[in-house]
């Protein structure tokens, strides 16, 4: 297992923050990334449809020989993770529980959760946090403009700072001490969000949390890659429009993605 | 035919600007609106898939007895309109050609076109304008943040004004005299766009143009409704999540939409 790749899937491009965090934590590991761009957004689809797509994505990655499936997509993590854990023979990791756990471990009761409208209205983070700490005081806010702002590349931009103020200053006034970035795109805005909120609020970057968790699972299983060997370049697959993935991917990775292959599932 | 309804379909909610313009122009006409919200966005789908969805939408409306099919969706109008005109027995009207024609009829050569990334990269408006006036000088700009700003309800908002400046002041500097609002959402921002651009640039509101054109087709055929009779309330159908359609629909219509029925095609 050690020489096998880590599989990551997302409904689109946002999971590249998870890819990046995994590579930072475990630079020697090969990653195979699948963005199901033909079916995005998952957030507006039914749980049954999301589960079906997630199963297809996982099977594609397993066909590529991955040793673990990391689900970067929030909707997929909400609805499909337990089903996938049941039917797949390798570990499957969703994004919700590790993020919720990290928020609770920060030790403060006043927790803010931000995400897309679909994620926030699903209540998945709130549920997971309350299971871990029934005394938590959670304030949620959907931030529908964050994803298009990131995809437009307006990362260090006065308009983005104003939008962050509009969405997040009410949460700051509410007294939150911990803020869960509950969408894979949001880590790209981490510096801007810190700048607007100032000190005193801990940001939970779910991409980093996922990378930590992936590392600890592989370590426990003895499946981490032996450092010196090489198992080739990372691979990127999408189900539609590789050109857009390449273009917007540069915003996430701050480097060119040379090869993105289009596949059909 | 006179007492039958006008059918309008869109991939989602944006077509409500067309609905509103039709009702303003022909208050006595009944309209049946279908938003194919389960499949949105169309802009990132293949021409074959868009044509298939458009055919299903049209057949649903025809099943409801409409006398004309008005396609409010840009992607559908780009790829499916000639196919639908071939297979359907009633008039079918797309959004691209009337918009392009109105732009050319404004009589200025310097024409700006704005739309979603999918519409702009399709080049559909440019092609249609150049067919009508080969001497036109067209500047195109995609404005990916306009749709989420409208759906967030930030219509009279300083952030929206700043975003409009960011996208459109370069077009103004370029010397455009006519600006085609090439996305069904954009008429909602018409006042804000006028405010930012100032005088001297004519905005082509494709929703108004569609309403004019629908009226003239029905008039020519003698199919306009006799004014005094009543043929019932307008009907709204979606293929997913009626609640979101109701909520965001209020931003478009400035009134409550009481009944939105979910159907499966």
Description:
The structure is a homodimer of 265-residue chains. Chain A is an alpha/beta fold and 265 residues long. The first copy, chain A, folds into 2 domains: 144 residues, Rossmann fold; 112 residues, Rossmann fold, CATH 3.40.50.1860. Chain A contains 12 helices and 10 strands. Chain A has a 6-stranded parallel sheet, sandwiched between helices. In chain A, strand 1, helix 1 and strand 2 form a beta-alpha-beta unit. In chain A, helix 1 crosses helix 11 and helix 5 crosses helix 11. The longest helix of chain A is centred in the N-terminal third of the chain and has 17 residues. The first copy, chain A, is globular and about 50 Å long. The two termini of chain A are 25 Å apart. In chain A, 49% of the residues are buried. The mean pLDDT of chain A is 94. Chains A and B meet through helix 8 and helix 9 of A and helix 8 and helix 9 of B.
Give me the secondary-structure topology.
The structure is a homodimer of 265-residue chains.
Chain A lengths: L5 E5 L5 H10 L5 E5 L11 H17 L4 E4 L2 H6 L1 H7 L4 E2 L2 H10 L4 E6 L1 H6 L1 H9 L4 E6 L3 H6 L6 H16 L4 E4 L8 H8 L4 E4 H16 L13 E4 L3 H12 L7 E2 L3
Parallel strand pairs in A: 1-2, 1-3, 2-9, 3-4, 5-6, 5-7, 7-8, 9-10
